[in-house]
């Protein structure tokens, strides 16, 4: 069972992805995480992606599709994967379809985390991210046990530069203009499932778990 998490920035994709991967054994494929890693390591891809990310714009499709298709083609047979943050427009969705066909894998479910803009903004402004392992926290809703320290690996927690107000607005506009149409794209394919991204972490996870047991995932 291979799935995509779809939803605006701040929908809780990263947080749910972490829990779902732990409980159901998906391989987590996050384009945001891979790109941030590339920027941190100063690779060629990182150098190319950096400015787009800082502006809250989408990184060019060729760069992102190359890293994702490369990653999923190396996934071991029998290991389900979860795509988080990809695809983000119809061109990427088309590339994904073609890549999956080539490696004879299917996309079985697109989980749409329908989230109101107020909730997205509130989540991103309080979000803190571990520089070492990428785990997400929130100053109010999900504070770490020790201030600014990651519960999982002891790494430092930071406010992502692109979670600042102006960039968040830009990212939400990009979502509206470029990504939202994927809801219909996948609805037409009959694989879209909708859950409320406005729910808190535990309630949302329970909803997804219920949905998975109905759909016989895991
Ligand atoms: P995320 O962590 O998913 O919010 O992604 C952070 C940033 O990485 C986005 O604002 C984009 O600049 C870039 N990015 C992540 N995924 C993609 C994608 N599928 N296509 C283009 N850019 C992406």
Structure description:
By secondary structure, this protein is an alpha/beta fold. It has a single domain, classed as Rossmann fold (3-Layer(aba) Sandwich), CATH 3.40.50. The protein is 50% helix and 15% strand. It contains nine helices and eight strands. It has helices spanning 13-24, 31-41, 44-55, 61-73, 90-102, 117-126, 165-179, 182-189, 201-214; strands at residues 3-6, 27-30, 81-84, 109-114, 127-130, 136-138, 157-158, 192-196. The strands form two sheets. The protein has a five-stranded parallel sheet, with helices on both faces. A three-stranded antiparallel sheet has the order 6-5-7. A hairpin with a 5-residue loop joins strand 5 and strand 6. It is globular, with a radius of gyration of 16 Å. The model has no long low-confidence stretch (mean pLDDT 94). The structure holds adenosine monophosphate (AMP). Residues 9, 31-32, 35, 52-53, 56-59, 64, 85-88, 92, 162, 171 line the site of adenosine monophosphate. The site of adenosine monophosphate (AMP) has 18 residues, from helix 2 and helix 3.
Question: What keywords describe this structure?
Answer:
50% helix; 3-stranded antiparallel β-sheet; globular; 5-stranded parallel β-sheet; 218 residues; alpha/beta; Rossmann fold; binds adenosine monophosphate; 9 helices
């Amino acid at each position: 069972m291979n799935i995509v998490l779809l939803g605006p920035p701040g929908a809780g994709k990263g947080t749910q992805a972490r829990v779902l991967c732990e409980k159901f054994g998906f391989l987590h494929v996050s384009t945001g995480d891979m790109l941030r890693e590339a920027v941190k390591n100063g690779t060629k891809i990182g150098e190319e992606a950096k400015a787009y990310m800082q502006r809250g714009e989408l990184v060019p499709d060729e760069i992102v599709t190359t890293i994702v298709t490369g990653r999923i083609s190396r996934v071991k047979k029998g290991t389900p994967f979860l795509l988080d943050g990809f695809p983000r427009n119809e061109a990427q969705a088309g590339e994904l379809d073609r890549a999956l066909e080539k490696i004879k894998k299917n996309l079985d479910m697109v989980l749409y985390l329908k989230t109101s803009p107020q909730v997205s903004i509130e989540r991103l402004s309080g979000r803190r991210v571990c520089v070492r392992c990428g785990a997400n926290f929130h100053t109010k809703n999900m504070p770490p046990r020790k201030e600014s320290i990651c519960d999982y690996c002891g790494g430092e927690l930071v406010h992502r530069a692109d979670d600042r107000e102006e960039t968040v607005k830009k990212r939400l506009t990009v979502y509206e203009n470029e990504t939202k149409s994927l809801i219909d794209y996948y609805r037409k394919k009959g694989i879209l499932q909708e859950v409320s991204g406005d729910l808190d972490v535990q309630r949302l996870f329970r909803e997804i778990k219920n949905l998975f047991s109905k759909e016989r995932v895991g």
